[in-house]
Amino acid sequence: MEKIFFSNWENIIRLLITGVLAYVGLLLLLRTSGKRTLSKMNAFDLIVTVALGSTLASTLLNKSVPLLEGLLGMALLIGLQFVITWLAVRFKAVDRLVKAEPSLLVYEGHVLPDAMRQQRITEGEILTALRENGINSLSEAAAVVLENNGTLTVLDSISHGVKSALNDVPRA
């Protein structure tokens, strides 16, 4: 019954040393990889983040994973993310592969029910986004866009015509 709460001091000391060193190593890797690694997440970024967390946990808790191997695994994930994002900036095909397109849900004050259904967004969620942006009425919304990171962006002026901010949004 004793092993539920404590097995031995060697495991505790290993966890403390490995935890501190892995944490410092991960911080250094994240700082050197740039701001993109910690930006608002799309699906690709979320996968990398979850994989980093899993690798860190394995390094901390699994005695068969040495610290250097855990740090190398984290560096590999961050390096792959860097390469993919570097390629995505330079090649549209790679960008389309790793990022979802933004989706137009409201245009010139009218909801687009097919787009809402396809993206599983309710009218209540759109109304919430309007209120959060100080817009009193759906008719005042030039556009509501579901961004590739899952946030709703609201454009509020239809009097000036189509906005260039919608250039990358299909069907805008």
TrEMBL record:
Family: Belongs to the UPF0702 family.
Lineage: superkingdom: Bacteria
InterPro entries xrefs: DUF421 (IPR007353), UPF0702_alpha/beta_dom_sf (IPR023090), YetF_N (IPR048454)
Coiled-coil regions listed in the entry: none
Membrane topology: Multi-pass membrane protein
Residue span(s) of domain YetF C-terminal: 90-157
Subcellular location: Cell membrane
Descriptive protein name: DUF421 domain-containing protein
Domain named YetF-like N-terminal transmembrane: residues: 20-86
Transmembrane segments: 12-30, 67-89
Keyword Membrane among UniProt keywords: yes
Alphabetical UniProt keywords: Cell membrane, Membrane, Transmembrane, Transmembrane helix
